[in-house]
Design brief:
Two copies of one chain form a homodimer. Chain A is built from 14 helices and 16 strands. By secondary structure, chain A is of the alpha/beta class. The interface between A and B is large, with 69 and 69 residues. Strand 16 of chain A pairs parallel with strand 13 of chain B.
Chain lengths: 426, 426
Amino acid sequence: MTKDVHQICLDARAAARAIATRTTGEKNAVLARIAEGLEKNAPQILAANEKDVARAKEKGLAAAMIDRLALDTKRLAGVAAAVREIAALPDPVGDIVSKETRPNGLVVTRVRVPLGVIAMIYESRPNVTADASALALKAGNAIVLRGGSEALASNLALGAVIRDALVASRFPENAVQILETTDREAMVALLRESELVDLAIPRGGEALIRFVTENARVPVVQHYRGVCHLYVDAGFAAEEAARIVVDSKLARPSACNALECLLVSRAAAPSVLPAIVTALLAGGAELRADEESRTLLEKSAVPRGQHGKLVAAAQGDFGQEFLAPILAVKIVNDLDEALAHVARYGSGHTEAILTPNAAHAARFRAEVDAACVVVNASTRFHDGGELGLGAEIGIATSRLHWRGPMGLESLTTMKWVVDGEGQVRG
Amino acid sequence: MTKDVHQICLDARAAARAIATRTTGEKNAVLARIAEGLEKNAPQILAANEKDVARAKEKGLAAAMIDRLALDTKRLAGVAAAVREIAALPDPVGDIVSKETRPNGLVVTRVRVPLGVIAMIYESRPNVTADASALALKAGNAIVLRGGSEALASNLALGAVIRDALVASRFPENAVQILETTDREAMVALLRESELVDLAIPRGGEALIRFVTENARVPVVQHYRGVCHLYVDAGFAAEEAARIVVDSKLARPSACNALECLLVSRAAAPSVLPAIVTALLAGGAELRADEESRTLLEKSAVPRGQHGKLVAAAQGDFGQEFLAPILAVKIVNDLDEALAHVARYGSGHTEAILTPNAAHAARFRAEVDAACVVVNASTRFHDGGELGLGAEIGIATSRLHWRGPMGLESLTTMKWVVDGEGQVRG
């Protein structure tokens, strides 16, 4: 007996109306109950997760996928801790965006209010179920979650805990709903509810995001790819550059903010490229370098026989998101060529420059069109936690509504409030 | 020889990149040249408009439609003046949304940047061509305009003036492009360019907006209907209520912020309703009132035989956007019933309360879910100019990205800028 998707959305809208005006204290109490529930009900959640994992193994899913899917006591404690961290964040609802008294005496205020109903479409990690629910609730929203079929038992177990916490806190239980069917028809039905759903957030591979965009009639916040570049300008210290590039590429190669292409200014290359490449090879990276870089490196003292390898770049290596310890490397004339390369091959996610030159930094900041531009630091800082949001429901590379890491503020909209004393327009 | 829509969008994207970093002075110079061009080329523009008007008359278009379409010297001077007013507005690009130094010393700034490429879909008024182009350019965006077929000659003449001003200012001429074909296939092609178009703004009747929403793969800012309510609470002075209601309903009944339904608290009705109704009837309104209101008015001293008329409301009159001097009238128990009525029948546009009670005003502000909530003033203040934006490209009743009157800030997005001194995440 599953509810149909339209009814789920109607119920979500009604719940959103009911919780939009709940106080910060009331919302935090729900989140505290969810965190407690995750701990108290750990045996049931882990048992459900074991079923998912067993089914995934039977199906022959890749080990990396199974690792993403699997929960254990420690991971579940981490999920509960994340919910408590969200409770501790400031509530954006009620924040005043602007306030102005007009010449006729009207006081015009723009105030942050909850967005309404969010549809979250995601793949295997079950922690997203709790994170996204907590973020949505904290910002006063209702949420409908559609996770991957491989995590359905885990997600339903997490959903039951969340529902109990809502009910115990006298919140409408339909504030968080999990689709019990993971077929594409149900997802498409959800994405077409343009009168009831305010925003769809897809999180997963590019194919999922393209499917959601193609089929949605509701607004979609997109995050296609992170083809991140880092340009080393003339005059930047070689050892520091090596340290930053290694962090950007190798700290977590599968992350969307990991570096995919290193650009080095021709003037800087002889002094910085050998040190950077030595460090990357020592860290096990595969470097796909253009001819000029390879010629330069052959002449220089880069040690051979290290863990990584240095090969010739193919044209397709530029603009590629490797999501692996692989890096494209290219020498460019100067800042202009670096900017042109980023404009052509970048995906609007994270772009970085290392430079001692303030004018070059200023041009890079102004001219690069990306969600996040980084000067003299690692690309890996493009992350909600690192940028001060506390937690994120995703990163948006699309321009509309929000761009970059999506924290609580991204789950709100605003309302204009006009206070008068009998004014008419005439 | 018309360019195909995909090429138009590619050219718009290239133009958007090129103008995103132009200074406020450079952008204002373009707008000054456009305003001058509108004046200098008035004969050509008016001749093109005459052709459109003649064709519209042949086709038997309604007089109101022809009035919306027609330009004359005075109206054209008004269009030029509006462009100069937009030049005088502050430029939102470069504004700092937030700035924070993280514990690790990273300086994280969110800065306003142009949105990119805007698709404007609109009906007959040719002034929108100039207004929308000026707003898009001022915020550093490129725009593709698809006006109504009945205004094509006028729009192309305006487009030629804008193109000349762009070229004379060394801006890319493709920053403003007008679709030369007004068939639906071209519009749909434009609305599907999700990689190249950042936002579609439809402006026109509900059918047009629904068509755009249904067919778009790009984000759409929507403005369906303005079913605006005004609730008169107990204790509000009768004469002042009458003055505000008359302004809200009769100053411009065809506007989207005009009042469509008057709700009166049962406690207030005997003292305020006769005065309000007398004033509305004197102004020629047709009142469609519920039984309780009519019974009360029959007993009171409302003068008969005035210009307007008082009839029984049908159920369908509640929730209707009359866009005419017609008003639904209903007595409600109290604030709770008024809030429930607004939640059920409102369209999320403009909702007003007249009350001397601060607690009731606070509840109305907090609980009403609309783009604009008005306390003790006319609904007609929900307008970009009146709320301090200077000019608007439309009003959004959708929640995402923007809500309410869309001025320059609504045509921007933001970029995260991270400034470091060699930090790595580790």
